[in-house]
Amino acid sequence: MSKIRLLDESTINKIAAGEVIERPSSIVKELIENSLDAGAASVTVEINDGGKSFISVSDNGSGIASDDLLHVFERHATSKIKDADDLFSIYTLGFRGEAMASIAAVAEVELQTHTEDEASGSYILIKGGNVLENKAIGFPVGTTVTVRNLFYNTPAREKFLKSNISEQGHIVDIVEKLSMVNTAVSFKLIVDGKTVLHTPGNGDLLSVLTCIYGKNTAKSMVRLDYSNPLITIEGYIGKPEIARGNSTYMIFSVNNRVIKNKMMGEAVKQAYKGLLMNNKFPFVVLNIKVQSDKIDVNVHPTKAEIKFSDDRSIFSTIYTAVKSCLASSSLIYGSFDEPSAEKETALSTAAAQRVYEAPAPAIELPDTSGFGDSYISPAKTQHNTEDTVTQTSFLKDNQNYTTKNVDKSFYEPKPDSRFTQPRYEAAPQVQTTYDRNLISSLKIIGLLFNTYILAQDGSNFYLIDQHAAHERINYEYLMDKYDTADMTLQPLILPIVIELSPKEITLIKDNFSIFERLGFEIEWFGENTIAVRSVPIIMGAPCSGDFFNEILDSLESTAKAVSPLESIVISMACKNSIKAGDAISFEEMQELLRRLSVTKSPYTCPHGRPTLITMSQYELEKKFKRVL
Description:
Heat Shock Protein 90, formyl-coa transferase, domain 3, 5-stranded mixed β-sheet, 19 helices
């Protein structure tokens, strides 16, 4: 007896619908893409109950001819392509001819449309794939598709839907992303009778970002424009201060198609390497233009995934574009480029249309108290308690100041091994140009809490974290020494003998060459014991031998995003940097800023914490209510 049977048409349609229509947001995405393919300049989306009971998408596009109305709901019927050859040169968002048939198979669908060439509009009502009504009506040019009672005939699928709030969130997310990619189209989203999003449709991505995320977030975005013979990249990338806790704010589109692609995300994360704290992700909105024959969009029914013919080149181009943009931008925390009058107007107008704002996360500061001290503060060695400055008054020229009851030797620059090593000349592949002169020329006012250097430039004041700044300097100094194999060693009179656990033995063996290149001379002293005979000299002082144990601990807890080399060097840099609470002299502050200005990434320490933040005089006066 035969066990194989042909399925009926209704079952086939429901199975096919399951591949395309996963949830209400799938319907919204497909209908909006149809509107965009129809050349719409305005799209309105309205939902109730998270899209479960009601979805309506209206546009002012070209409409659908009455003769084509019935074909709209047939499987694999489309106006986008003619044959298989067209799959290699797709210029539209839709092309599979499955969406409308899939929606009609699992819901009640009402379609109203009108083209400029026809005297009247058309109306069709379909339920469960069956046409219930088809007639001519009066209707403006464009199309409105209304979907009711989703999955009413597939209860197994309906019960897997999430709460109304959850489904609503997916719809909001897809409308936001499509609005960021299609900035020339005005999007309006109405949820349960309330407008939650309305973009201007003026072609300006910054205006759309303001509508969605707010004015402050938009001000922290940096414009990116990059092109080569392969691809063109446009969009905005966020400064490190607005980094998010997940990767959902890394938004990519290829030829105006919102996609998911791990390779592109990894390229961006690599470009931000060293600028973000652990478990933080950059905020980017990038639209890539590439020849259609270089990509394959016919990968998945949802059309959310694509394949590139040359992944390596795409990765390299995205990395270079983002890295170059970051290198040529001010990444000082709290530093916003003064917007032009037109830009400020656009931001204000968009902010007025915004209904809600995604708040930026608070900056989390790691605890560095466990690293201990590695040197005696020079401020303590150079002055005894009787030589302490009791009053200092800095004048406009920060090189000339008057003091009372101050040791005259205070005026004389004092050499300090932490700053007088050969100057580290940064030679990054992408040279940072923004703020180079600014950082080194800041007018230093003083030291706040023996931790933050207070400085001024024009109408802005700056706070520089002395530990974070020195940590960045030390990190790049050590990496340079590692790259050139030029680390100076200090032999120990008595070697440090360390007994290792099985896991630590593996760590030592796996990273033995790194330790040697960094200046640790290690000998095996039995099966599970090593002898450290030499340690590196960092900034003029030998590294503590006991610190080797701390390095092993850091390697065990290293995040996957950080290589063993980086983990070791970060630990060494942190250990040998100025600590919070260490008083430093005026000359040391100057030298610290000078050396920070020539690093590759002066805006963050190796852990991703900011080295300096700023606030304008205007912002300060607003806090004191001097201006409104």
